[in-house]
Amino acid sequence: MSKPLIGLCLGAVLGLVDGLFAFRYPAVRSMMLSIVLGSTMKGFASGLAAGLFARRARSVPLGIAFGLAVGLVLSFLAAQTSPDPQGHRYYFEIMLPGSLIGAVVGFATQRFGRLPAVSGVSPRRSA
């Protein structure tokens, strides 16, 4: 599997799991569909970004930092736009798992997956 595809799959699955954990908060149960979809899309986007970054930079610490940063920014945007019915914004509850998902996906895309083949270069044959 390619690095972006690993990022997409892992990010979407971890985002889905993160969204399902919102059942712990009774105040937001009426918005569960949008929470699960938003969290899955957030993980999907973090995974794609981390996978594309992994194609360019081949450094596990940089991949983790990049994934963490992308997850943090996307989670902050989600927390800004999603108050519960009482107007409370769950920054910590949204941003912590979102940034951790980004870091995990950043690590996975650096460690696993294959890079695209270099085209136009043929191996030398020995005679």
Describe the structure.
This protein is mostly helical and 127 residues long. The protein has one domain. Helices cover 67% and strands 0% of the residues. It is built from 4 helices and no strands. It is elongated and about 70 Å long.
SSE arrangement:
Blueprint: H1 3-20, H2 32-56, H3 60-80, H4 91-111
Helix pairs in contact: 1-2, 1-4, 2-3, 2-4, 3-4
In short:
With 127 residues, the protein is an all-alpha fold. Helix content is 67%, strand content 0%.
Note the main attributes of this structure.
127 residues; mainly alpha; 4 helices
Helicity level, as a percent range?
A: 55-70%
State the total count of DSSP E strands. Answer: 0
Task: Assess the beta-strand content as a share of residues.
Answer: under 5%
Largest sheet report: none
Number of domains: 1
Q: Gyration radius, to the nearest Å? A: 18 Å
Mean pLDDT: 86
Low-confidence segments: none
How many separate helices?
4
Distance between the termini: 34 Å
Order of helices and strands: HHHH
The gross shape turns out to be elongated
Structural class call reads mainly alpha
